[in-house]
Amino acid sequence: MGMSMDTLSQGTLGFTAAKKPGCASEKMYGKKSGNHNKAGKKKKYAYNPREISGELLRAAKASGAAVVMVKAKQKVAVLEQALSSGVYEEAAVRRALVHAKKMVECSKMKVVHLRQEEQMAVRHQRERQGRDIKKKAGIQRMIAKKEQELRKKIALEESHDLLWEKTRSQELLQKKKNNRREELEKITDAELKYLESQMREESEGSFSDFSGVSLELSGAAAEMTEIAMSGDVSGGAASVGTAVDVCV
Q: Are 20 and 34 in contact (CB under 8 A)?
């Protein structure tokens, strides 16, 4: 990877220190024991600008962005210590420090933005639930109204059906009465004509017999006429039969 053991030995302060036998702490802070320090040459600071930015870009929740913000602040503190130590190249450390501070600002911005988005999502969810409740209530009211209208319509149709049945029953009853009256009148006419014909054939009899037959014939005709006018078919038929038998 092109990194020396000095780079891998970076401590919590975030800068490189040489690991050689002797006083390591003195070499870390630029004491006279280091060969490079004796010559006045400062070390290069190993800084990865994509470390914080990558984590910040991947953060999807405010809590995750807050963790990255803490790391960015820690990185700034480490760089400030490295800058004050005088061990590293000042320009490189300052450049890294500027970038780290910007990462702190960016992480703060993302925390605020993600919190706003999460609050908006919660608000939208509550509004959606409220709209769903209102929608369900509206649907229930609509269903109740439709059911009431349907019940009224069914009741009205049933009333119409009952009226129709009653009307048709009355029409059928009247039709039966008219038919029975017409049938009775025709039967009565036939029997009267039969009796008249019989009277003519028996006209050779006595005058008293003729008068008796005439009276019976008149009574039968009157009775049949009364039955026909009343529409009583069964009673009329029995009366006609009796009258005919008497006449014969």
A: no
Both tokens of residue 163? 């009226």
Tens of pLDDT along 134-188? Answer: 999 999 999 998 899 999 999 999 999 999 999 999 999 999 999 999 999 999 9
**Is residue 146 within 8 Å of 154, Cβ to Cβ?**
no
Give which of 177, 171, 174, 194 is closest to 240, Cα–Cα: 194
> Residue holding tokens 């910007």?
102
Assign 197 to helix, strand or coil.
helix
Give the residue carrying structure tokens 């913000």.
69
Q: Which tens digits make up the pLDDT trace of 194-239?
A: 898 888 888 866 444 545 555 555 666 566 666 655 654 444 444 4
Supply the pTM of this predicted model: 0.46
Question: Residue 88 and residue 102: Cα distance in Å, rounded?
Answer: 21
H or E, element range at 202: none
Q: What are residue 88's DSSP bridge partners?
A: 43
Cα 243 from Cα 221, distance rounded (Å): 9
The whole-angstrom separation of Cα 1 and Cα 232 is 124
